[in-house]
Amino acid sequence: MGNRAAERGSVLILILSSVALLAGAILGLLTVENGRARRTRTEVERTRAFTMAESGIDHVRVLLDANALPPSGILDWSSDGQDNDGDGRVDEGDESLRATTERWWSDAVDNDGDGLVDESDEGLAHVASTVRIGTSTVTVTGWVQRLATEISFSTPAVVNLVDPNAKLIFKGNSFLIDGRDRDLSGGWTNNPPVYGIATAGSKLSVLAQLSKQQLDNVNGAGGKPSITTWSAPSSSWLPSMVETMRTQADVTFDHYGSTYTGSLGSEKTGNYLVTYSQGDLKIGGGSTGAGVLCVDGNLEITGKWEFVGVILVTGGVTVKGGGSSQRLTGSALIGSDFVQELSLQSQIKGGIELVYSSAAVAGISGTSARYTVAAVTEP
Prior knowledge:
Blueprint: H1 2-65, E1 74-76, E2 98-103, E3 124-133, E4 136-147, E5 157-161, E6 168-169, E7 175-178, E8 195-199, H2 203-208, E9 218-219, E10 227-229, H3 237-246, E11 251-254, E12 259-260, E13 263-264, E14 273-278, E15 281-283, E16 287-296, E17 299-302, E18 305-313, E19 317-320, E20 326-334, E21 338-341, H4 344-349, E22 352-355, H5 358-361, E23 370-377
Parallel strand pairs: 5-8, 5-20, 6-21, 7-9, 7-22, 8-10, 11-14, 12-15, 13-16, 14-16, 15-17, 16-18, 17-19, 18-20, 19-21, 20-22
Antiparallel strand pairs: 1-2, 2-3, 3-4, 4-23
């Protein structure tokens, strides 16, 4: 009897031991599988986070194309009210993308270490795009390149007056407007000339504002004085062009209160810049530039000044002083009056020269800036 009890006890212990071993094995297997599932889930989350972070860089490129990126340069999916990941929900936990954009072409920093800031070869935007899904956080760095583009541009004359009632005032004979085509070295080309002055108003009105002695100072197509009538496609055409160029600006002035005397590009070094001024702009002696100068307001020029390219001004242009070294090589579109104010000394020395150059105008023709993702890296 005692032996049977002992045998049953041994069997029970064996069964319990086996159950414990089996339970341990099952627990171990579950632990392994749970770990594998967590790793798989983490890998899925990380892959999805990486894909979303990359899409954030593409999203920044699209917004730059559309000129719709916020001025802060920050793209935040967590609070934009959009279903960015296509799951039918908005601003949920996994829409955590945050991308910050630094525009090298307008940050006043020497990003490429050449001693210059915001020049034409700094046409890159640095984008850091971060996404967090579950326990996985991924940051992707992207480089969005601004492509060299052009705006649709053609000019009937050197000086183009958009306002039919614009005043055209010159002092004495201290000016030259020449629509014959010059190359950038100063010589003449065989290309046909444009007119010296084009007005949206009456040609007779312009003639009445010039003295007999001044008529010979306006040269170009049709002989002297070279004047024609011309109308902009619409009343909003010039402001729209200026606004279009704002999105491409290499240099930006925001209601600049002082007189600018620095460089706005150089034709000699091939550094053609887009300069945009929100509000009136004063440019003083010693200033030079090349490319496109856009002023959403009035432009005032004093002292020595040279520019190669196109000037777009929604308001009027006033030229003061400066002698014979005030010179535009290219073309100008002006929304209001053109007035030359010179002292007696300046009149003796000579005034402003406005000369046409197809080479200066070339390269300034298309509609808006275009961008492409140049590179993507993961830190």
